[in-house]
């Protein structure tokens, strides 16, 4: 009876030890077994694993991809601009044995290496590269972190910069620069449009100069477009050359008319004088001696009076 009790107790203790030696390894984990403190070369895969109680000790390592955010790092770029940059690192354990033996805490080690590498990238890069050329920075940052991580059995999948925080003064300067650039582009577009319009107008003027009727048709078309609005007043343009033509014609015609008037007046005066100066036939009664001399004296006086009055009448006639 005593022997059965002892055997039962021994069996119970063996069962308890067997249970305590059972370990379950998940699908996303790998087990590293340390026997008397020495790591076994065999890496335990997922499933039910048996260990020697009191002798073996298992350490599980997660082999999933880990997403680790890098805290915001402040630095000065190569062109002396103070910025604050944060990033994110994606990595996984490629060699569980090294991750468990070569480094005490590979997560903390990767975080510190990522922070120092990010500060180094900030100091080597310019502000324009941080804002526009991030692909090259991602590759360089991943290479800098992956170099020490390979010795720890960790593979860096990718590194990306999340945000770049600029000072307020730099933001205002960049906004002014962008505004000036947009204004420059707008002015260039306007100038290009004016150049094309000028070229088209020059071509149109050349065609109109060859066909003068086209200018008249264009004028009539403009009149039709203006007349479509009933509340508008239509003003027909009068060329200045036409006014100058009338002015020159007036200046050339007035002296000719005055000369013709003066010539007509002179001819009329000469005709009157010839009629008055013509001697009448002397009657036989007046043919006595001394009478002809008296008649000549009277005719001379009449001629003098007529010559003095007729020019005045001739001068008043053109004026009327």
Describe the structure.
This protein is α+β, with helices and mostly antiparallel strands and 320 residues long. It has four domains: 2-61, no CATH class; 66-170, Tetrahydropterin Synthase, Chain A (2-Layer Sandwich), CATH 3.30.479.30; 199-237, no CATH class; 241-279 and 288-319, no CATH class. Helices cover 60% and strands 20% of the residues. The chain has nine helices and eight strands. The strands form three sheets. It has a three-stranded antiparallel beta sheet with strand order 3-2-5. A three-stranded antiparallel beta sheet has the order 6-7-8. A hairpin with a 5-residue loop joins strand 6 and strand 7 (82-93). Helix 3 runs antiparallel to helix 5, helix 6 (168-210) crosses helix 7 (212-227) and helix 8 runs antiparallel to helix 9 (291-319). The longest helix has 43 residues, at 168-210. It is rod-shaped, with a radius of gyration of 62 Å. It starts with a helix and ends with a helix.
